[in-house]
Amino acid sequence: MSRVLTAMPAAALAVAVLAGCGTEAAPSAAPATGKASTAADPHGKRRQVEAMRADCMKQKGFKYIPNISPPQGARNTVLRQMSGDYATMREYREKHGFGVFFVAAYPDDPEEGTDQPLPNPNLELWPSLSGTQYKAWRAADNVCYAAAFKKFTGKTVTSEEDVYKQGEALSLKTRKRLLDGDPRLVELAGGFGDCLKSKSYPVTSLKPTALETRGWDAFDKQRTVALDKHRESGAEGIDALLLPPGKARPYLAKEIKAALDDLECGKDFYAEFLPRDKKVQDEIWDQFGRKEGLLPW
After folding, report:
1. Cα 8 from Cα 234, distance rounded (Å)
2. pLDDT single digits (tens) 180-192
3. Which of 142, 218, 243, 265 is geometrically suited to a Cys-Cys bond with 195, CB 3.0 to 4.6 A?
4. Residue 233, helix vs strand vs coil
């Protein structure tokens, strides 16, 4: 998927993985038969994975509540951005920049803020566990999830988080192989890079995949530095994962300007690169069960 949809700091990704995505109530899990009727139930395989996971946890002496929140579908505006639509990309960037500092700057945003309920019902179990019990619960769940994921996808993973690590690694490798050597994209990337340089933005690589993530990567580095300073000032726990809005908003203002300059320089590039990039990434993530609802989008 494009960075508009999937790129996020490691801490936020971990929260998303543990929480699951979706806002509807979780229906009952189906028996773990190994065969899901996706025609009758488009998320039948997810139901069966979760049922097998719960049975496995029960056998290990732990409670696990099947988490079958429907995957979060991409909004139409996100899909249009992923198609390289200039007007939609500009509308997004005028508010979000590259998407790095916005969540911290506006945590109460009704669509993308952090102050949203986490639908994973297992979150209700964790406060009752001691530190030692929680570690044992997580270790058991990793084993159970890995076994269920293997059964229903054929892929070997060590945990739910590992699914994303493997998918991202394969996606990056495949994108570089298929997109960075494409003559037309290389030509457009050259013009894109020259334009950025003329506006005094540093360009370390003219490879298409590198240019697409250049803006995000630059501001993500700034966020890392800012978060380190925030923690040094005494921030702990969940407060240490995001900058306070007052500290994040000046960064967001700079990010928005840079993102708009980036778009003006790269609008022809994005129009050709993003649809092809989306196709490649869709094919990769479908290997990890996205179509069957095993991923949160």
Report:
1. 24
2. 999 999 999 999 9
3. 265
4. coil
26 and 293 in contact (C-beta within 8 Å)? no
Q: At what angle do helices 44-59 and 131-153 cross, to 10 degrees?
A: 140
> How far apart, in whole angstroms, are the C-alpha atoms of residue 72 and residue 5?
11
Distance (Å) of CA 64 to CA 2, 14, 67, 164:
32, 18, 9, 22
Which DSSP letter does residue 40 get?
Answer: T
Query: Average per-residue pLDDT in the chain?
Result: 84
- DSSP 3-state helix, strand, coil percentages of the chain (rounded to 5)? 65, 0, 35
* Model confidence, pTM: 0.76
Nearest C-alpha neighbor of 252 from the set 223, 211, 228 = 223
Q: How far apart are CA 286 and CA 156, in angstroms?
A: 15
46 touches 294 (CB < 8 A): yes
**What CA–CA distance (Å, rounded) separates 230 from 129?**
29
CA 194/CA 266 separation, integer angstroms: 10
Place of tokens 């929680």: 134
Cα–Cα nearest to 246, from 118, 63, 104, 122: 104
pLDDT tier at 249, thresholds 50, 70, 90: very high
Read off the pLDDT band of 18 (50, 70, 90): very low
Report phi then psi at 274, rounded to 5.
-65, -45
Joined tokens for residue 103? 């969540």
> What is residue 74's predicted lDDT score, i.e. its pLDDT?
54
Residue type (1 letter), 198: S
Task: Provide the pLDDT for residue 8.
Answer: 39
Contacts of 17 (CB under 8 A, 6+ apart): 160, 161, 164, 296
